[in-house]
């Protein structure tokens, strides 16, 4: 594998940093009509595939929500600015593939080493990030109970939590620590090590990952109550229902 060296100097006028700093309701750096379930304007995604794929879109913004805030998870990846910067660079490489069973995602191709002089962060990028269409990101089984797909960490396959954990796992392979080591050691040929790496990320980010479903449930509950209130208001109006 040929290794290319790339030095990134200054801030760079990239959508990455714009996303990291602009991920707040009411900003105008999104495409018209691109909103989350609460009506907040979302930042542009670094890959058009995110807009086309509802599952990937949800996983991307869920992960970005975690990394954009200061918490134990984003701190593990170097803080919100570093975490969102590298994460968006990773998502820019995403594609969907049919890979062999047992693989959730795979980064492949030559690598580029990057230094962000603004944050003094060293990281690397592969040519592609492939998401397995036959893996736990999208499926629970391959068509019958015998071919059930394993989850990742303690999370079930084809769930909000497992998708975020998988993306954070891959992110951990890209960022160097100040001591020069990768946050997660390479595990492409070692399934046991891959599971250990996933559990390590889960241990650090568990609270933030689990809070995603709680927030979704709360939003759904509020919407249900709002719909019921509107229906009751219509029923109480003169004439009632048709």
Average of pLDDT: 81
Distance between the termini: 70 Å
- Coarse morphology: globular
Major sheet details: 4 strands, mixed
- Low-confidence regions: 1-22, 24-33, 217-225
**Number of helical stretches of at least 4 residues:** 7
Protein model, in words:
- The protein is an alpha/beta fold.
- The protein has one domain.
- Helices cover 43% and strands 14% of the residues.
- A four-stranded mixed β-sheet has the order 1-3-4-2.
- The radius of gyration is 20 Å and the shape is globular.
- 31% of the residues are buried.
- Mean pLDDT is 81; it is low at 1-22, 24-33 and 217-225.
SSE layout and pairing:
Blueprint: E1 3-8, H1 15-22, H2 48-52, H3 54-67, H4 72-76, H5 80-91, E2 94-97, E3 105-116, E4 121-132, H6 160-172, H7 191-236
Parallel strand pairs: 1-3, 2-4
Antiparallel strand pairs: 3-4
Helix pairs in contact: 1-5, 3-6, 6-7
Characteristics of this structure?
242 residues, alpha/beta, 4-stranded mixed β-sheet, 7 helices, 14% strand, globular, disordered N terminus
What's the quick description here?
With 242 residues, the chain is of the alpha/beta class. It has helices at 15-22, 48-52, 54-67, 72-76, 80-91, 160-172, 191-236; strands at 3-8, 94-97, 105-116, 121-132. The longest helix has 46 residues, at 191-236.
